[in-house]
Design a protein that fits this description.
Helix content: over 70%
Distance between the termini: 74 Å
CATH class: Mainly Alpha
Largest sheet: 3 strands, mixed
Number of domains: 1
Structural class: mainly alpha
Number of helices: 10
Oligomer: single chain
CATH superfamily: Rhodopsin 7-helix transmembrane proteins
Strand content: under 5%
Radius of gyration: 21 Å
């Protein structure tokens, strides 16, 4: 007990050990940050205000855009400070808060993607009953439920982390505060935290992934039973964007949290996390706009209305 120290701050090692490239990395992540904020704001705005996009699918896409805006902002601004000032110190309370918001938004997005898969199943397999099955009340209930579940899932991790003592230094082997690097610094018993990470977080990732696969399996079975090549083509055209996002999200999440502990690698974790938190949120609006005719049409209408108002 005498060797335990009260940690008031942590030191993040940063996104890269190559300090000569910090200027280039800052420019790269600044471009990604601008692209993320602008792209997701456009998607959120057009799904919120365009009357042609007031459907359940675009309601969930709008939720996803808001998640990606805040998700990126959870880790990248602190990374900017480290790249500019070479000071990667973060107060204890801010570290726990960063961990909380990272897992809150990440788990909410995982559950939201599963809901979006279920929505596509209802729209394709039950088109006549779809407006009744996916009513306005149900989609709001589903959205509130996944946000609430994500909040309490992350709150559980934050509470359990705040109960630990830290005596193995304060240098976090990551560029942001995540659960596993913090547990490595603790001198308390951490088996409960690790069990929660594997059991609860792992169940969310695998459970949502399984539900998404089931939804698309039922979609494919229904379309194949129609013996319509055109129907199959339209189905994959409609669902291709969502499947791309699902593959990126669950693939990265699984690589981060479902690998055996003995195979953990600092460089691998940092590379996967950069893809997971910085690159994927930027790709989501591109995927949904470039592959979606309705969103592109809504953007053209918005640009047309803006041009007309300026001429007036």
């Amino acid at each position: 007990m005498q060797n335990r120290t009260s940690v008031t701050e942590f030191i993040l090692i940063g996104v890269s050990d190559a300090r000569d490239f910090y200027g280039s990395l800052f420019g790269l992540f600044l471009l990604l940050y601008i692209a993320n904020i602008s792209g997701n704001l456009v998607v959120a705005a057009v799904t919120l205000w365009d009357p042609h996009l007031q459907t359940p699918m675009y309601f969930f896409i709008g939720n996803l855009a808001f998640i990606d805006i805040f998700y990126f902002s959870t880790t990248v601004p602190k990374m900017f400070m480290g790249l500019v000032s070479n000071s990667n110190r973060i107060p204890y309370a801010a570290c726990i808060a960063q961990m909380f918001f990272f897992h809150f938004l990440g788990s909410t997005e995982a559950m939201l993607l599963a809901i979006m898969g279920y929505d596509r199943y209802l729209a394709i397999c039950h088109p006549l009953r779809y407006p009744l099955l996916m009513s306005r009340q149900l989609r709001w209930t589903l959205a509130v439920s996944v946000w609430t579940a994500g909040f309490f899932h992350s709150l559980l991790h934050a509470i359990m982390m705040s109960r630990l003592s830290f005596c193995r230094g304060n240098q976090v082997e990551h560029f942001f505060c995540d659960i596993s690097p913090l547990l490595a610094l603790s001198c308390s018993e951490t088996w409960i935290n690790r069990a929660l990470l594997a059991g609860v977080t792992g169940s969310i990732i695998m459970g949502c992934f399984a539900l998404t696969l089931i939804s698309y399996g039922l979609i494919v079975r229904a379309v194949v039973a129609m013996h319509s090549a055109e129907g199959l083509r339209r189905t994959f055209s409609t669902c291709g964007a969502h499947l791309t996002v699902v593959a990126l999200h669950y693939g990265c999440a699984g690589a981060m949290y479902l690998r055996p502990h003995s195979e953990n690698s600092l460089e691998t974790d940092r590379a996967v996390t950069v893809l997971y938190t910085a690159v994927t949120p930027v790709l989501n609006p591109l995927i949904y706009t470039l592959r979606n005719k309705e969103v592109k049409a809504a953007l053209r209408r918005a640009v047309g209305r803006s041009a007309c108002s300026q001429r007036e």
